[in-house]
């Protein structure tokens, strides 16, 4: 099974085309959280993994339909170049995510891949 953790414009509260595509090709599982810090990029957030105990990014977890090419389409939306990850704005990585019931799942997530030193930290998007 393939799970995806989203924390930005792909969440249910957004009615953007790629969020609609996700909902059409995946089932909502649960709200959840992952160890990360979120930054304001422009009009969208970017999360970076963190080992800080209290660093959590809230989001949503989806189960992708089998044989779906949704991740390939979302790679383009997120600026992830699988053949050139170092040149990508976001990279797709598997991370542990905690569900609301306390259980954990391993999920794909798009993590910000550029310098965050001059970006403002945000706590919600």
Radius of gyration, CA atoms, in whole angstroms: 14 Å
Number of helices: 2
The biggest beta sheet reads: 7 strands, antiparallel
The portion of residues assigned to helices is: 10-25%
Give the CA-based shape: globular
Structural class: mainly beta
CA(first)-CA(last) distance: 27 Å
Taking pLDDT < 50 over at least 5 consecutive residues as the criterion, the unreliable ranges are none
Short description:
The protein is mainly beta.
Characterization of this structure:
A hairpin with a 4-residue loop joins strand 5 (90-99) and strand 6 (104-112). The chain is mostly beta strands and 125 residues long. The protein has helices at 17-25, 70-77; strands at 3-6, 26-40, 45-49, 56-64, 90-99, 104-112, 121-122. The mean pLDDT is 95. Strands 1, 2, 3, 4, 5, 6 and 7 form a seven-stranded antiparallel beta sheet that branches. The protein is globular, with a radius of gyration of 14 Å.
Highlighted features:
125 residues; 14% helix; mainly beta; globular
Helix and strand topology:
Blueprint lengths: L2 E4 L10 H9 E15 L4 E5 L6 E9 L5 H8 L12 E10 L4 E9 L8 E2 L3
Antiparallel strand pairs: 1-4, 2-3, 2-4, 2-5, 2-7, 5-6
